Amino acid sequence: MSSPVVGPQTLRPVTLSAVSLFCPAGIGPEGARGGAPGPVPGFQPVKWIPDRKGLKLMSRAVQLGVAAVRQAIALDGTLDELPPLRRALFVGASPQTGDPEDLRPALDKALGPAGFDLDKFAREGIDLIHPLWLVKGLSNNVLGFASAAHDLQGTNANWCDGEDGGWTAILEGWDAVAEGRADLAVAGGADALIGAEGLLGGVACGEGAAFLVWRVARPGERVDPRPHKGQLPPDGSDLGRLGAATWPVRYARAVLGGGLR
Amino acid sequence: MHTVSPGSARGHAGALAALGDEAIVITGVGVLSAAGRGLGALSTALRADAPCWSPITSTLPVPRAAKVQVPLPPWDAPDGPFPDDRKAVLALVALEDALIDAGLAEGIPYGPGRRGVFLGTGLSSVTPAELAEDVYPHLTADQRFDRPAMARDLAPDRAAPRRHLPARVTAAVAARVGAEGPTGTNFSACAAAAQAIAEGLWALRRGEVDLAVVGGHDSMIHPLGLLSFVVLGALSPGFCRPFDRGRDGFMIGEGAATFVLERLGDARARGARPRAVLLGAGTSADAWNATAPHPEGAGAELSMRRALRDGGLSADDVQYVNCHGTGTPLGDEAETRAVARVFGDRVPVSSIKGAIGHTIAAAGALECAACVAALEGGFLPGTVGLDELDPEIAVPVVQAARPAALQVVLSNSFGFGGQNCSLLLGAAPPAGSAAP
Questions:
Q1: Chain B environment of A121 (Cβ under 8 Å)
Q2: Predicted local distance difference test score (pLDDT) of residue B299
Q3: What is the CATH topology of the domain spanning A14-97+137-256?
Q4: Which end of chain B has the lower number of beta carbons within 10 A, N or C?
């Protein structure tokens, strides 16, 4: 079978213009070295997310993701030069669980000596459940909230592939700019697995988010080829399982730590 | 800046001529919906304007749902590979049917590294037992959820969290087709399957793969699934009536559709029958509000225009729009406003969600299948449930299915959170014709 190496498109030059980083080693450049499994030190969502109403609907992973998108866009500094419809966003994320607390009143009604009574749960509990319980559980919440916050109307996708989701997002961001579907793409991932150690077989877990900004290279700017995992140097630190943030965090640490560019 | 449109010629024939052997064609289709198993069953139901829902018994105010009624393998049995996960079973059945349809069930003539898989999926089907036994005991007396304790307690003997990992179906599909190329599990709510199909198209175009298995699967017809939409106020307590003056929500459905995508030249070289051409795709974000659609359908308009541009065609080339058309008051009005801005009042539109329900993350795949059926069968699907057209709907809505020679159609999928995707499909090149 024929296997054309290059498709019909003419690719545009792409540059990596900004990198954000939130990981157990820290925020921004200070997060580029060292670190151990755990939370992002000093992360206060209210400092990064002005949308107070929206903040209440965000899980920890979504908060980290929305903050990291904001930091990446601020570092790039060119967003306002582009029309919203040319600004893309690609995200790697895990499924969210909603907030179990939102179900408590209904569960209280439904559980008795005989166990769980589904009919009772539905009949007596339904009005006690937070109406946006489903919304809180969507995996694409980083995409929804961040696109609204920064008017990113361009092409987009949310990839939910465990540790690979963030990498898929990074590639698709580069592709979208190179292929002309966007002039700027924010691409990365976010996750928060602290507390899930048991579910994951006892491994140490962390949390984090990192986003890259790919955009069309201007004259004189460095042109970055399509990324591949093999270009990333080994990261000597164990930050714990970072889920969908794994590859974006590793990429960001490589860039900010001076090991990639 | 270079143009990246695969063709600048106008019209379907012109687009095919510009693309030549590089046109991305659908050579295999597997469908499971409330209409039955196979594209033929879906086509028959749509031609007949058949309502495919059935009454369901539930304490919830959900009188009916569009369930897949055909027998399925017991893969979702407690000891099966996908315990309690009906949508996974739907996906795997649709995959086998698609491979058979493409003539690839016994072998795939592309290298493993040249095969990709992109699927759209939805929320996990949390069971009542999981709620009662796994979640509730870890809601502590001080009104907090003790996640570490739950994780600790679940680890030894429960399927969770493995059961809830969205990518496991993609992994199973990749294993079945021996794909070692790129894979992706799109989770963009109701736009997920369409976005996954778009990604397969683009991966083929850029030469990253020679074969892409794409589609979507979902089933929210389970207690927590139904409940989550009821509390959201999205389900109709009566009937799903897209574009109707009295519409009041959607009807939940379930299903899966899987497609085999290849380049036309490759398909012909192995004697495969192209069923349709995937001409283009466009995605956009409302960037408006995480919990409400843009009232004017700005994002919807963008995704449609992008799909047209991606396919190198104009609005004048399109003869039918399969709307997302959920039957919600805001959604239908916003979408048809967007359609009117792109196509004027010339192009007929319809929604098949009154017939087979809203299949959520699978919707984009099932509606892509409906478009293939319409192109192959020469008909415009109707809008089951529509009795009295809302006067605010300013586009020509097809109420009852009718014959029509179609060359180019467009399918819309819009997701909660503001993600939108439009797919542009064309009729297959005539069998036996020389490559354009």
A1: 128, 131, 223, 227
A2: 96
A3: Peroxisomal Thiolase; Chain A, domain 1 (3.40.47)
A4: N
Q: Which of A76-90, B13-27, B56-70 has the lowest mean pLDDT?
A: B56-70
- Residue B7 in domain: no
Is A121 in CB contact (< 8 Å) with chain B? yes
Q: Given a cut of 80, is residue A158 above it in pLDDT?
A: yes
Q: Which of A4-8, B220-224, B298-302 has the lowest mean pLDDT?
A: A4-8
What is the total count of domains within chain B? Answer: 1
Between residues B93 and B223, the one the model is more confident about: B93
Pairing of strands B408-415, B419-427: antiparallel
Residue B396's domain comprises: 18-124+166-427
What DSSP designation does B373 have?
Answer: H
Q: What six digits make up the tokens of B308?
A: 């047209």
**Chain B residues inside the 8 Å CB shell of A4:** 22, 207
Chain B residues within an 8 Å CB radius of A164: 167, 183
Nearest to B231 by CA among A125, A138, A54: A125
In the numeric block, the tokens 């965000």 are attached to: A58
B157 part of a folded domain: no
Residue of A59, A118, A136, A179 best to disrupt the B interface, most CBs of B under 10 A: A118
Kindly list the catalytic residues of B. Answer: 190, 324, 358
Of B147, B161, B205, the CB nearest to A7: B205
Which residues from B are below 8 Å from A153, CB to CB? 284-287, 298-299, 302
| Residue B435: per-residue pLDDT | 47
- CA distance linking residue B350 with residue A179, whole number of Å: 32
Domain assignment of residue B39, yes or no: yes
The predicted-structure confidence for B387-432, as pLDDT tens digits, reads as follows: 999 999 999 999 999 999 999 999 999 998 899 999 999 999 987 6
Measure in Å the smallest separation between the Cα of B2 and chain A Cα atoms. Answer: 7
| pLDDT at res. B103 | 98
Q: What is the DSSP letter of B225?
A: H
User: Which pLDDT score is estimated for A259?
Assistant: 81
Query: Of A27-31, B22-26, B263-267, B294-298, which gets the smallest average pLDDT?
Result: B294-298
Of A8, A134, A196, the CB nearest to B229: A134
Lowest mean pLDDT among A56-60, A227-231, B98-102: A56-60
Higher pLDDT among residues B149 and A82, named by residue = A82
Do the Cβ atoms of B417 and A153 come within 8 Å? Answer: no
Q: Give the C-alpha separation, B202 to B222, whole Å.
A: 34
Query: Which of B202, B206, B418 is the closest to A147 by Cβ?
Result: B418
* Least CB–CB distance from A199: residue in B161, B204, B288: B161
Q: Which residues contact A44 (CB under 8 A, 6 or more apart)?
A: none
Q: Where in chain A is the domain with CATH 3.40.47.10?
A: 14-97+137-256
* CATH number for position B321: 3.40.47.10
Q: Which of A5, A9, A62 to mutate to test the interface with B (most CBs of B within 10 A)?
A: A9
The pLDDT, as a whole number, for residue A9 is 59
Which residues does chain A have within 8 Å of residue B144's beta carbon, measured at their own beta carbons?
101
> Do residues B24 and B263 make contact, with C-beta atoms less than 8 angstroms apart?
yes
DSSP class of residue B246 equals T
